[in-house]
Structures are given as structure tokens and as C-alpha cells.
Write a structure and sequence with these properties.
Strand content: under 5%
Low-confidence stretches: none
Order of helices and strands: H
Mean pLDDT: 76
Helix content: 10-25%
Largest sheet: none
Shape: elongated
Length: 61
């Protein structure tokens, strides 16, 4: 008899390509998310994109 195919997870694929299968269960793997203020908007930013610079031949010196 043939075995039913197993569900592949990203962890299992990494384990196979690392040439060692670990004893991980998909239900035990919980993502560890945390929030940061790395991309917080500057309070002094007006929210308007800067204007485009003049083309090289039309600049005033």
C-alpha cells in the first residue's frame, strides 16, 4: 500500500535541505511577532512628496 502524502511545511523543507530532520511538529511552531516604531512617521513631515528637480539642461547656475 502507498502512504498518504504528508503536508509540507517550510520548516520541514529547510530540515531536508540541511541534511537533517528535526523533531518539529507544525502545531508547536508559533510565529514570534513584535511591533517596533522603526518606520514611524516623523511628526514634522508634511506628507507631501518633494518636487521633481529640473532637467540637467534647464538649471539656473
Amino acid at each position: 500500500m502507498t502512504q498518504a502524502p504528508k503536508n509540507l511545511s517550510l520548516a520541514h523543507i529547510h530540515d531536508v535541505y540541511n541534511s537533517g530532520v528535526s523533531k518539529r511538529e507544525p502545531s508547536q511552531a508559533k510565529p514570534n511577532y513584535k511591533t517596533t516604531q522603526r518606520f514611524a512617521r516623523d511628526a514634522g513631515h508634511p506628507g507631501i512628496a518633494p518636487t521633481r528637480p529640473l532637467p540637467p539642461g534647464t538649471r539656473r547656475g
